[in-house]
Design brief:
single chain, 236 residues, mainly alpha, 64% helix, elongated
Amino acid sequence: MKKPKSPVPQQTVLFRIIALLTQFQLRHFMRNIKNTRTVLIVFVFLEGAIALGTITMVAYLTDLPLLFPQLGPSAFILFYTPMSMSASPRNCILSHTMAVVAGLFSVHLLAIIFPEAGLLNYGVLDWHRVAAIALAMGLISVMMIATQSIHPPAAASALIAAMGYLENPVQLLGILSALVLLVLEAFLFNRLLGGLPYPIWRPDPKVSQKYRILAGLQEAKTTFWGQLADKMFQQR
């Protein structure tokens, strides 16, 4: 007696469901719809709203300090240009962590040198604070370049730390936890809703070149002055 043939994978219910869901992913829409800008706007709106809404809800339910201004621009980069180098989990988490360290190091160093300045109190704003902020900004700039982990919103983390707003370890843990949660959401959303090969940790320059629009590498339109210069050059 012949054994019944097992169904071809393409004929299974699970395969059909997955195939149907892929038609609603960002990658599918950008391949089949001419107005990719509108699709990208809707995608960024949904992901940004869900991601920050989830973090806000977790902060409300747990009463933990998970909300910081720099989460906004970081979320925008992770969802608007998810295939860019700065949107990778490594660059996001590493740069923010280094920024907090740079800010705390700067303010505590100057607090030791000038104990009378009271720099550990965020209400103090004088030339000592200016020096701490300047040192923190310089340090985080050098650190991001040296480690090749560029993520511009991280500069805000260094600024907040240098201004003395991170007063206790709970706030430090809160900002790092919020960043990890944001990156996890970016990984899930960009892969599930976007259908994109969003990196697990390190960015891949080859993938960024393949998804130029989603990596922020689209060619800028030539300005009026650029067009005029080209015409003058051609007439020579």
